[in-house]
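User: Predict Fe2OG dioxygenase domain-containing protein's structure from this.
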Amino acid sequence: ERLKPYFKGKPVNPCIVNRTKPPQGFGRHFDNSKFDDPVATLCTNSGVNIIFIHKDGRHYHAMRSQRRSLIVMSGESRYEYQHAIPEGVDDAWKGKLIPRNMRISWTLRSMRDLSKYDDL
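Assistant:
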């Protein structure tokens, strides 16, 4: 229910569930353009640092995804910035070293109507 305003009536499909354990992370990437705006990720069980890297490679932002947090990427955050979770057993955040635990994330997307696109 809480996600409906973000998806503006579009059906959410698919939902991908990932389980990562320390020291697992994932490399920087853009989400596939076959998916429409937004891409929403619900982080459960444990928090982790996420890095957003501008496509020019010169700018980045780090954020802490807390347990039970929701990250919604659309527009600039989706198409101008790649995102990654560095590998590691702990995260440095605000002067503290935070041990990682198993993280479960639920990534929700809406598939574009691909019949409108020749290049996808």
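The chain has a mean pLDDT of 89.
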